[in-house]
Amino acid sequence: MGGYRARLILALGMVAAVAGLAGPIGPARGLSGSPPPPTPVPPFGSPSPFPTSLTTPVPSTRPPPLGAPSAELADLDTGQVLFAKGARVRRPIASLTKIMTALLALERHDPDQLVVVRADAASQGGAVLGLRAGERITVRDLAYGMLLSSANDAAVALADSVSGSVPDFVRLMNRRARALGLRDTEFSSPTGLDDRGYSTARDLMVLTRAAYADPAFATIVRTKTWDIPSPSGPPRRIQNRNPLLWLYPGALGVKTGTTLQAGHCLVAAASRGGIRAAVVVLGDPVEAFDDVAALLNFGLLEFRPIVVVSTGRSVGTVGVGGARIEGLASADLTVLVRRDRPGIVVRMVRPVPGLRPPLPAGAVIGWLEVTVDGTPRGRVPVVTAVAVPATSGPPVPGPSPSVGAAVLYRLVLALLRALIRAFL
Q1: What is the CATH number of domain 307-390?
Q2: Among this protein's residues, is 150 annotated catalytic?
Q3: Is 271 designated active site?
Q4: pLDDT, position 110
Q5: Which one is the CATH code of 59-301: 3.40.50.10490, 3.90.226.10, 3.40.710.10, 1.20.210.10?
């Protein structure tokens, strides 16, 4: 009877999640934390489909087995890919779409800017804040509502405020995607609820890293609960749908998404031991939290950071216009190396072609390219240590004295021969 009841609750929760009506609860087996309470949603509330514990394999230097057909694990700071499975396969992404909506809204608006909610936003279904047409609400509160509780009305309200209409905002989303180099991504709405848009795990990793460059985004997605003022009555208290914030030590966010077509999708990030790792999982058939936790364990426990170059360190001399100029690394570069591998690091400086003195201090004269175990891991600009004057190079070579004397000898000899012929 107990097993039947558990299966019934899980099934009901899945139905609620697909409809966009369910909220989270959460902690992990063997990990610290206490479960967040179920999130009731009007009119009657619904059982949460999210776990109160995590099941992951024993940490290993081998990548964990996954139920999801598409996933990527990467260093959140550098983008170094640590694991990929079907990462370039296009798939529907459900509410992960809202990461792009948040990026654009936070790029173009001050978080304290007031937005007047329009009728198209107030009429949205699925997960909503219950916004009313004409309501005035800050960009910050809309972003919290959209990223924590996946509120569709908040997403549309932000789209309207940025572009004036949803169709114009969708065009902006796709232009921004092209600018980020997301070649396998197409957006069709600011919510993702329609399932007509698509992306890949690889593209979503790039998008997530771009969003994390905004401190406001990073703050919002790691927040567990938030109160949003209501036009009348008590504030609307919302709770983050990402139970990893309770279940996984060091969790930083990011966003959940579920529809019938997309399956269970999740972008997550966590920090531990000086590493910030990010995971994208798409199309998980059951739920994505175990797969994501297993990949986070792999990235955070089985890799170690190695500083391969530091800002201001000499990388040797670089040939510039015939001169040898001392070059300095202009940025740090840290790579992650598997703990069971030696991590053979090769550094190579490639000069910028065609440069000649004079050059100011700090001028880019080349690139330091780094490979680890034969795989490219990044590059940093190489700059001049000091200003390089035009006279710093070797003098332009001219005819040597011996060559000049030989030419003069031949000229004199030819003149003598001509004079002799004239007298004969």
Answers
A1: 2.60.410.10
A2: yes
A3: no
A4: 96
A5: 3.40.710.10
